[in-house]
Amino acid sequence: MDNKKLTKREQKAAAFRDRKKKKPSLDEEKAVPEQDVVDQPDAQNESGDSSFKQAQKKRKADQDGDGQQKKRKRGTRGVKARERQQQQKSRYILFVGNLAKDVGKEDLSKFLAEQVDGEVEVRLGTVKGTNESKGYAFAEFKNNDCFMKCLQLDGQKFASRKLNIQLTAGGGGKTAARTEKIKERNDTLKSKLLKSSKNSRGGAEEGYEE
Length: 210
Prior knowledge:
Blueprint: H1 8-22, H2 26-31, H3 43-89, E1 92-97, H4 105-116, E2 120-126, E3 133-141, H5 144-151, E4 157-158, E5 161-162, E6 164-167, H6 176-196
Antiparallel strand pairs: 1-3, 1-6, 2-3, 4-5
């Protein structure tokens, strides 16, 4: 064995040769299989997409619910409007005139209720700002039977005066059209009453307003 002492330069050269021997070749590096890399789904993105879809579904459900609720409200309003119209058509109101000035609402209500054997609501015409009677009232009945019985009281005495009981028309005012409408209704009804009963009396020709 050569025991000759190596110089520093020779030592570096020997060390370089040793490293080169230990280093794998390029082919050897390629021969080592690389670890397969599997792309992992972005959990954060998936979570975000899911939340967005859920929010969309919730908004759509809320909109559908609001739409159904609005439809129900519109339907309810329509039903109530029809009910009000039906109630207005079915109201039984008569004009009661030629009342004595000292006749009060309670007096007339009691008299009419006894005559028709039913409930009656009286609205007495009074001077604005006072309780002074204008000599007329409007009587409203629950059904047609009481309404017809009261109509036949036209001309009957009450508090020393003959009652003037007439049909009335909805609305207000003293227009010629409204007055004529009331007159026609009274004339038609009087004709029917005369045919159905010999004791029926016809009312005055003039119409009145409520």
